[in-house]
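Students often ask why we bother encoding 3D structure as a string. The short answer is that it lets us treat folding as translation between two languages. Here is a chain of 337 residues written in the first language.
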Amino acid sequence: MSRRAPAFWQSRSFASAALLPLAALFGLIAAARRALFRLRAVASVRLPVPVIVVGNIAVGGSGKTPVVDWLVRRLRESGYTPGIVSRGYGGRVEGVTLVPPDGDPALYGDEPVLLARITGCPLAVGRDRPAAAQALLRAHPDCNVIVADDGLQHYRLARDIEIAVVDEVTLGNCRLLPAGPLREPVSRLRSVDLVIAHGPLSPSLAAQIDERPTFQMRLEGHELLMLGKPGERRAPREFVGKRVHAIAGIGRPERFFAQLGEMGLDVVPHPFPDHHVFVSSDLDFAPDEAKILTSKDAVKCASFAPADTWEFPVTATIAAGAAEIILEKLSHGRQTA
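And here it is in the second language, the structure alphabet:
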């Protein structure tokens, strides 16, 4: 399943304004739903272990997957045994299931398979996030903390810590669906435990966050891995001066293209919609020139990628202090709400 954001989400155009009545209705429903859970008129499911939610307030990619990877690494370093739950967007799984690291992205979803592979954590997917977490804990009773990927609006799963990942570009015109890309208003960021900013925040947005602890994130990569030859690695400098084809089906492909260009590569960009279902013909071009994929796309293309196709894995570097806030909140025990 692929999705491409409407162009009018990036401006306060007539097309966006025409949808404001529907956006207002969406906002009322979202606010009422959240209030029902907050007032416990509708019950949330509280697990026997702490839950950390990593999510965002907008449709589209903001960098959540690298943040989840970073988070489970910090948790492990502090003695925790984390597990991950995800909806499994783009997969075909019905109900709840555990995801193997070598799972089929078409079945389980691209992001869950990537997270299972890079983290080595037990991972369960399912639309019902509490049921997925419960299944994971039954299968892995040693897990003592659950990280919920993209679960900020899934209020049925009670949470102890909320982390919002914000890429201001993805907020577009800052209007609610369907007039804009927001699932919840910007004011929602004032209630999370911390904000991780993927890129600089404007003064106006920073002011709206109302002094929430905010930490900058950057994505860094240092080598390229050849698809089909796990042991074949090269430094990006080996591609400098050569024309390469960069293929990305992520929320903001232009960020990936720019990162490669900043390393001195002569990049020919090939953007696809987020969660694009790749087929071999999508990579069937320029047989004599290298092709470079994001890790999220590489898991989907590994079985049919032509020769000279490379993955560029990145990891999140997050400003000092973010992990300490999370660990301190965990050490202070469970929230009652």
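Translate back mentally: Residues 222-313 form one domain. Keep this in mind for the problem set.
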